[in-house]
Amino acid sequence: MKNIEYDLVIMGATGFTGKLVVEYLIKNYGVENEEFTWAIAGRDKNKLERVRSSFKDLDSNSNNIPTLVVDSHDPILLDKMTSISRLVISTVGPYLKFGEALVESCVKNSTHYCDLTGEVPFIRESIDSFDLKAKKNNCRIIHSCGFDSIPSDIGVLLLQMDSLKRFNEPCDEVNLYVRSIRGGLSGGTIASMINISNYMRSNPEDQNLLKSPFSLNPRDSVKKNTRQPNLKSVKWNDHIQRWVCPFIMSGINTRIVRRTNAITDHRYGIDFRYSEASSFKKGLTGFFRAMVMFIGLVIIQISLNVRPLLWCLRKFSLPSPGEGPSKETRDNGFFKLDIIGSMDDIKKISLTVTGDSDPGYSATAKMITESALSVLLDQDRIPKVHGVLTPASGIGVVLAERLKDKGINFSINE
């Protein structure tokens, strides 16, 4: 029997996103509350104390937040933390560099875990190394609990549940379209993209698997699946009457949604197809914006493989690790996503996901915190499963309910 001291620990609380999670917890649940206990963790004691002090105006008791000094590469300190914790939130990226030892420690000590990773290679390694043991030790390892990939994963789940309710069958094709979005970019996101690129170059034997649209499915089903849509340019979409181009987050989101389907006995169907795209209004203005977005994605992709270009971008335009969008940028951010499902190529049902703040940071802090609290406080209402999971398979509809009053809404369109 574990000797629990803290229900929730935020690992990486001194980082940009970690601070936002701490701020969200203080604002919405207080330094102390009757539902759960919590603490912050990081490798620098002085930085942890500065984080506590920085929130004194928000809560005069912020200096009472417990602190744990833990290094991501020290298994002894990690075990010390996870053995006294019920669940750990990790905001320490890039996860390929800093994540594996913490996941291993959580599994070893039967501690639940949520993170924000959008790194497909990291999740693949986590599945291969820890899924079976996490099931045996009754813990949930839930990756991608931020903007990637909760709107996609929970949105598709709710859409398919409504389809089953209305038509007694799931939609065989679902497409997500980004209608509007505004937010900033952090240095941590850039560092993760660079690490993924480096990993792919260093592990050529894994490239075919990781490039597969089913790369996060159980290994025995990776090659036995339905061909998936793959948008590679700017196109006009007759169904939604808008210009579309690739969406930067689709590479991780689509794989998370497909993993959900695969590990829930194909509740969306064996032949389920899923894609994501950015969309823009009709006319020359919309076409121009779609082209600008597409060219930007191409430049990012090229720069990840051309070191001098990457150096220039990081030196003169991209934020450094630990940096991120200003409070004004975060507060003025928003997103609106349309998820449209069809059966036999006929549009049947749709759902809209909206958020009232920066998707990658303010909204992400809400999503990961409420994901963790769903596991801690709603155990009777979430799926009775363990292992390396997705938000939809490991948490489910409870998360949408918790986010509803926090500015993030999932709405079925009648």
Taking pLDDT < 50 over at least 5 consecutive residues as the criterion, the unreliable ranges are none
**Largest β sheet strand count, sense and barrel closure:** 7 strands, parallel
- Globular, elongated, flat, extended or rod-shaped: what is the shape? globular
Terminus-to-terminus distance = 49 Å
Radius of gyration: 21 Å
Structural description of this entry:
With 414 residues, the chain is α/β, with parallel strands linked by helices. The chain folds into two domains: 6-146 and 362-406, NAD(P)-binding Rossmann-like Domain (Rossmann fold, 3-Layer(aba) Sandwich), CATH 3.40.50.720; 150-355, no CATH class. Helix content is 43%, strand content 20%. It is built from 16 helices and 14 strands. The model has no long low-confidence stretch (mean pLDDT 92).
Topology diagram in text:
Blueprint: E1 6-11, H1 16-29, E2 38-42, H2 45-54, E3 67-69, H3 75-82, E4 85-90, H4 95-98, H5 100-108, E5 112-115, H6 120-136, E6 140-142, H7 150-167, E7 173-182, H8 187-202, H9 207-211, E8 235-237, E9 242-246, H10 250-263, E10 273-280, H11 284-303, H12 307-316, H13 327-331, E11 334-343, E12 346-355, H14 362-377, E13 387-389, H15 391-394, H16 397-404, E14 408-413
Parallel strand pairs: 1-2, 1-4, 2-3, 4-5, 5-6, 6-13, 7-10
Antiparallel strand pairs: 7-11, 8-9, 9-10, 11-12, 12-14
